[in-house]
Each structure stands twice: as structure tokens, then as C-alpha cells.
Amino acid sequence: MSDEATAVRADGPSVRASIAAMFRLTARHRSSMTVASVLTLGGSALGLAQPLVAKTIVDASAHGHITVPLLVLAALFVAEAVTGAVGRFVLERMGERVVRGLRSGLVSRLLRLEMREYDRHRTGDLISRVTTDTSLLREVVSQALVDLMTGSLIAVGAVALMLWIDPLLLFLVALTVVAAAVAVASLLTGLRTAAEHMQGAIGSIASELERALGALSMVRVHRAEEREAEHIGTCIDTAYSAGVRTARLASVLNPAVELAVHGSFLLVLVIGGLRVNENANTLGDLVAFMLYATYLVVPLSSVFRAVGLIQRGMGAFQRIDEALSLEAEPTEPKPSARPVPAVPARCSPRTAPDPAEPAPALALDDVWFGYRPGRPVLQGVSLTVPHRQQIALVGRSGAGKSTIFALIARFYEPDSGTLRFDGHPAAELGRQECRARIAVVDQNTHVVHGTLWDNLTYAVPTATPAEVHKVVELANLTDVVDRLPGGLTGTVGERGNTLSAGERQRVALARALLTRPSLLLLDEPTSHLDAINEAALGRVLQDVTRHCALLVIAHRLSTVQNADHIVLLEAGRALASGCHEDLLTTSAAYRELAAGQALRTRAQGTNGRGAMRLR
């Protein structure tokens, strides 16, 4: 994670703490900030010199010797413009770099969060912290901080010169500035609170829109477009209300500054004119003082607005800080490369497991787990998955089958008990090493926007065309390749919407086979397959077990009745285990499950979906 990301930690609600935190955010870019500040101050110093030259021109106009001062004034003006432009570019570039570091740190963090954090937070809201919130912070970093620092210094310089010219006029200007400062200070707390509410509401809009677009087909089939629009509209209204409140406070803040500016200018004009008439000052003094008064307007306005902008930015600051504080998986070294077998050939007989193998590919020993304390989903589950064998998990919905897969993938850690890969405790191997040994075909198949080749080689970007064509053949994807314009380089659309559910499932299977795992996890592998492809998958699985272990979740017993071993789960417990024929004889719960499957098959008639005969 970047240093900018680790620097974002809230110090409290005070303006001083907010400014200090923002300065820490730019810790790695102090050199750029220093250069930008020096250039800005240099340009301002050139600007501060101009009223003195103007005073000289006015006082010397009666004598006609003004050519050289006019040239000097023009040179100062051009130099100020060039210096200010370069300083602003350096500042804007620094702001972009800070935001780049923040976004990189946030993306890195969000991709590595513990799965429990995603159970508690909306995806769209987390995304908005990377986009919307960092954009607001960019404005704070690239403008407010340097404006606050240089504006304060320039104001001090202008005040010193005004004090030298006329202390009385300076006192009158100071009164109006103090009055404006009091008004601004009273608005800052409310401005920050309103900005926090607005950023939170924007995050809610992103979350709700992401939810609706992610299920767009369901929304349209149920004619829920208007209902979803109204629901998201509620979030939009909330953001609007917070934005209006922010605008109302900002609209009061800006006139307060402008009134102070205009009031001080009128006082200088009136009182200064009277003092010129009384010969207390020269006309040149009045011109110089008025120019300094106008020059003072810019830095004072920038200081007030910078403080207001920092307070508005603290809403985004807090949300980014919260995201960076979420618990992430521990950073681990990448697993060392290990030799893997070639992709299995089709139609080869299953090889018997080697009795000399010291440990199974996977073993669960008395595993307990719950997503919430005191509510276990798994209760003392023990099972083994030997090398080159197919083990099946069956049971009713909610029995804990998918939870076992989540534990094997190390998305969660058991509350008690042990997972072992090849005899090694999972905790000793580390998450990355455990995941390097497995591949998963989830029932919610993930196909991302891009080409078919991109999806197949997602885990193995260096795969050769021969390897890809082999898994395409194994997963019966040849017809999909032939149908897609461009074949393997054809685009599959957002979430693979140009493919059917069964085709997406076969893509996921081919992608998993390409990694050559030692343990392949299949979650409902035939849920979207027709009878022909289901039968073909059965042959593929027999071939795959020649080189890796298989753990399969299935509701269709026809998918797993030829498995080497079947484990029946019930309410988070391993209720029975054995081969299909043995369980039909020894387990009433399994017979009930099989009978229900048979009834559904007969009710489906001849549609060919998973027919099974009880034996």
C-alpha cells in the first residue's frame, strides 16, 4: 500500500487537526509542494512590488519621468504571470500524484479485504470511495493546502506594507476582516457535516444502481424499472438535500468574504481620500494602499475558501480512512512455482490411487464455523479427499456445502478444527499457497467483460494456444468458439451476457482445468447443463481424476452417483458417508434425498434433465 494511503488517518473534527492530516497526506510530495509554494510566493512577491512601482509612477507623473517605471511595471506583471502559471502546474501535478497513490492504495486494499468485510459493506459504496471521494480530495490537495499556506504568507506581507504606508487605514481594514473570519468560523462545522452526508449519499446511489444493473434482467421481467428508479431516486433526493445544505452554507460563506473585501475597500477609499485632502498622505500613498488592499483580498479569500474546502473534503477523507481501516487479508509471498501435470487426455481409464501417498489432497478435521458468533453453520465436520479420487457433497440447501468450499478457498477461517492440504495445516501454508493448489468452478459462474481467450486464460495468462484448445475441447466449448465472431478473440459481453448460463459454466470449467490444480472444487457443475453436456461432463471428470482430486457439490445425484465417496451433510454435520449404493442401503436421509430426486425427474418427463435410476 502507498504511503499516501497509510497516511490517511482521522485526527478529529477540528479545523487544525483536519489541516494537519491533509499535510501528512502529502508527505511524499513535500519537494513538489515546496517548489510550487516558492513559485507561488515568488509570483506574489512580484505582485506586491507592483503597487510600489505604481506609487512611484503616480508621484513622478508631474515631472514626466515615468518611462522606466512603466517598463519595470510591465516586466513585473509578465514575470508574475509566468511564475504563477508554472507554480500552478507543479501543484496540479502533485495533486494528481497524491490521488493516484490514494486510488492505488484503496484498490489494493479493497481487493484484499477479508470476505467478512464484503458481507458488511456495499460494493457500490466502496467503489465510490475510489472514484468520487478521491476526486474531491484532489481538489483539496492541489488547491487548498498551498493556497492556505501561501495566502497566509502573502497576507502577512501585504499587511506589513500597508502598516508602513498608513496604520490607521490598516486598522479599519482589519476590523472588517475579523468580522468576516468570525462569520466563516461559525459555518465551518456545519459545512463539514453536510459534506459528509452528501458523500455518503453519493455512495448509496452508486451501491443501489450497481445492485439494479447487476440484476437488470430480473428488474425488467418483473416490470420493476419504475420501482427501482423511485428507490434510487430516494438516495438521489438525500444527496440533493445534503448538497443544497452544503451550497447554502457555502453561499453564506462566500458573501461574508466578499462583504469584508468590499467594505474594507470602501473604507479605504473614503477615509484615505479624506486623509489625502488633509495632506496626511500623498495620492501615491492612497493608490499604493488601495492596491495592497485589493491584493490582500486574493490571499485572504483563498485562505477562507481553503479552510472551507478542507472541511468539505473531510467528508471524503473520513470515508477513505474508513475503507483503508477495514481488515484485509495478511500479505503473503507468492507461492513458489511447482511442477504440474499436463492437461489430461480424453477417454483415458481412471488410474487407481497410489497406496503409498502419505496424505490426502485435502482433509477437514472436526471443523466448526459460523458467519456470526454463536450461530454455527458447520458443526464438527470431518472428511478427506484423497488424490485422484472424486468426493461428492450432497444435502439439502443450507446444509453447509458452499461454506465448506469457502473455507477450503481460505475466504474464511474455521472457528475451530483444522484444514490440511497434502498433510500440511492450512495455517502453516498460508492462503496464497493453499489457493495455488486449488481451482473452483462456482455455481455463480464469473465471466468478465473481454474476449473468450481473456476469460479462459485469466489465471494462466501465459498459456499456449495448444493448452487453451485442449481445455476448450475438454469442456465442450468448441461450438461456442465456432459461434462467436472472432472465435477465441470474440467478446463475451458484460458478465458474459452473450453466452447462455450453461456456456458460462463450461467457460468456468475450462478456465479451472487450465490451471492444472491438485484439487478441483465444483459447485453444482451441471446446474445449467443439458443431458448431453452433463453426460460429457461426467466423462471429463473421470479423466480429470487421473491427475487431481475432485470435490463436487451437487443437488442432482445423477451427477455424483459414480463418485468414489459421497458425504451427506445435514444442518452442518456429516450425517453419513459412503458410495451411492451403500448409502441407499444404510442412510434413510440419503434414500429420502434420492427419492425426491427421482420424483422430480419423473415429473420433468422426457426433457432429459438429470434422469437417475435408484438401485
UniProtKB/TrEMBL annotation:
The chain crosses the membrane at residues 32-54, 66-91, 144-165, 171-191, 252-274, 286-310. One of its GO terms (biological process) is oligopeptide export from mitochondrion. Residues 362-596 form the ABC transporter domain. PROSITE patterns: ABC_TM1F, ABC_TRANSPORTER_1, ABC_TRANSPORTER_2. One of its GO terms (molecular function) is ATP hydrolysis activity. Residues 327-358 are annotated as: Disordered. Residues 35-312 form the ABC transmembrane type-1 domain. Residues 343-358 have a biased composition (Low complexity). Gene3D superfamilies: ABC transporter type 1, transmembrane domain, P-loop containing nucleotide triphosphate hydrolases. Keywords: ATP-binding, Cell membrane, Membrane, Nucleotide-binding, Transmembrane, Transmembrane helix, Transport. One of its GO terms (cellular component) is plasma membrane. It is found in: Cell membrane. It is a multi-pass membrane protein. Belongs to the ABC transporter superfamily. Lipid exporter (TC 3.A.1.106) family. This is ABC transporter. The lineage of its organism: Bacteria, Bacillati, Actinomycetota, Actinomycetes, Kitasatosporales.
